[in-house]
Amino acid sequence: MQGEANELKLRVKNRNTIPTQCDVVVIGGGPAGSSVATALAQAGFDVVLFEKERFPRPQVGESIIPHMWRYTDMLGVSDAIRAEGFLAKAGGIIVWDDIIHQMRFSSFGYNDPDRVGLHVERDIFYNLLLQFYVACGANVFEEVAVGKVDFTDNQWPKVDYVDRRGGGFQRGAIACRYVVDGSGHAAVIARQLNARKLVSEEVNYLGIWGYYKNSYFVGVDQRAHPPEDAYAVKPVTFVTSFEDGWIWHIILRESTSVGLVINRGQIKGMGREAQEQYLRESVAKVPILQDLLAPATFIEGSMCFRPDYSYYSQTIVGDNFYCIGDAGAFVDPIFSQGVVAAFYNAATVAWAIKASFENESRRTRYSQLAERQMLQYYGFSRLLALGDFGGEGVDPHLVKSMMRAFPRNELELAMAASMTTNRSHYLQRMIREAGLFDYSGEDFAQGKLEVLTGVTF
Ligand SMILES: Cc1cc2nc3c(=O)[nH]c(=O)nc-3n(C[C@H](O)[C@H](O)[C@H](O)COP(=O)(O)OP(=O)(O)OC[C@H]3O[C@@H](n4cnc5c(N)ncnc54)[C@H](O)[C@@H]3O)c2cc1C
């Protein structure tokens, strides 16, 4: 049934010829780029989106938190996502230094069966979003890679691209009023400006992952289940610390994603074969995980890795550009915030660009406001996900003011997440300093977090 439910009627404006001028150019068709393009196309702007790959194509990061629906509702894509039939995710079970915590989204008011967390195949999810955006009137050009942006003309920046459609190689340029960089890890503009910075040179993580067939999964009932039960018992995302870092286990409809986040020194100098061996041996040693994977087989050739975790750009907005999603900053994905952060950034920047077109004289003010919003969110995510070093470069006032604006349940969920590992001391301190919780950590944990003795097999 995968994919069949989503027969979207495409209202394609002009898919063959790349224009020489438009209102907004968006770089990248991930969740950040495609949602800003949709929001602007829906508002009537002439948007051109360049995506260097042809979709669908594999992408890691399969756990989606229920906050997503707020943004997909605004764009109107929620029904198409639901119709795809992705697996639901009921929360997380986290083993950290031998303590096992369970967080259920339902304990934080996320009870609407239409708005659950999800485990998604990212290639299908991305393609679904991109096709929806095409249907909304955005001009999407796949297999067109942006090289650089020429900002010489302050009113009309020029975006240089290489068009590789149909196996060709054609250089071109398009002028626009605004450029939104949603190019993810490639961070086209940040690299061009030499503004991309690692959060810490010493603690530089990387991700290494692969896919298994027939793994058991952990259900919300704290039991292990065979994969065919994944619609009958809601899965949780299973996370465990281990001697070199942490590991995720995310069941999907036809496979299970298992990955390590480790300091890059751990696999320095290893070739691909040795890396794969390290991945497989590491997961096979970890309690619970080894039992979940006992009946499973590794899908040959599925190993991938991503260096340079936890970086940010020192410049995320300019007179006529914005860097959003991973193109602006990337945070260790332990609490699955990346996709929602991308949606959040996209909504913020779509608002700023619309407002700037409507009132040109205030465009600097709008871009400053958007920058502040994005920095707030980024600072918050970083303090939640990283250890002590995560505070470097984060403005605590911005983070506190954002947390004050959070709905109560969202703040409680963040607080609960912060108590499942030993990484979020800064955030907890800030929550206390902001006077947001009158709590003693243990009381709070007893109400909202369960401590388990194990998973039943
Ligand atoms: C190992 C790992 C695990 C993760 N797990 C999770 C998770 O479980 N949950 C979660 O929410 N997040 C997770 N994330 C984070 C999440 O994947 C990202 O935060 C999210 O994808 C950001 O979306 P984006 O649109 O900014 O970038 P991307 O999704 O990376 O999209 C960028 C797009 O830009 C395109 N592009 C790049 N360069 C160019 C160019 N020059 N011209 C045109 N197009 C270009 C790329 O092809 C790509 O399609 C994880 C990340 C990693 C690395």
The class by helix and strand makeup works out as alpha+beta
Within CATH, the superfamily of the largest domain carries the name FAD/NAD(P)-binding domain
Structural domains: how many: 2
Please, what is the average pLDDT?
91
Q: What is the tally of beta strands?
A: 25
Please work out how many helical segments DSSP would assign.
Answer: 13
- At CATH level 3, the topology of the largest domain is FAD/NAD(P)-binding domain
The percentage helix is 25-40%
Gap from first CA to last CA: 30 Å
Give the cofactors and ligands: flavin-adenine dinucleotide
Poorly predicted runs are: 1-14
Question: Could you list some keywords that capture this structure?
Answer:
binds flavin-adenine dinucleotide; 2 domains; D-Amino Acid Oxidase, Chain A, domain 2; eight-stranded mixed beta sheet; alpha+beta; FAD/NAD(P)-binding domain; nine-stranded mixed beta sheet; disordered N terminus; single chain
Describe it.
With 457 residues, the protein is of the alpha+beta class. It has 2 domains: 1-60 and 68-85 and 121-199 and 310-393, FAD/NAD(P)-binding domain (3-Layer(bba) Sandwich); 205-306, D-Amino Acid Oxidase, Chain A, domain 2 (2-Layer Sandwich). It is 32% helix and 25% strand. The protein has 13 helices and 25 strands. The chain has helices spanning 31-42, 68-75, 78-84, 122-135, 188-192, 272-285, 289-293, 338-358, 363-385, 396-405, 408-418, 425-433, 441-448, and strands spanning 21-27, 47-51, 63-64, 87-89, 91-96, 99-104, 117-119, 139-142, 144-150, 158-163, 170-181, 196-198, 205-213, 217-218, 224-225, 237-242, 245-251, 256-263, 297-298, 304-306, 311-313, 317-318, 321-323, 329-330, 450-452. Strands 5, 6, 13, 16, 17, 18, 19, 20 and 25 form a 9-stranded mixed sheet that branches. Strands 1, 2, 8, 9, 10, 11, 22 and 23 form an 8-stranded mixed sheet that branches. The chain starts with 20 loop residues before the first strand and ends in a 5-residue tail after the last strand. The model is unreliable at 1-14 (pLDDT under 50). The chain binds flavin-adenine dinucleotide. Residues 27-33, 50-53, 59-64, 145-146, 182-186, 188, 207, 209, 259, 306, 325-327, 333, 336-339, 342 line the site of flavin-adenine dinucleotide (FAD).
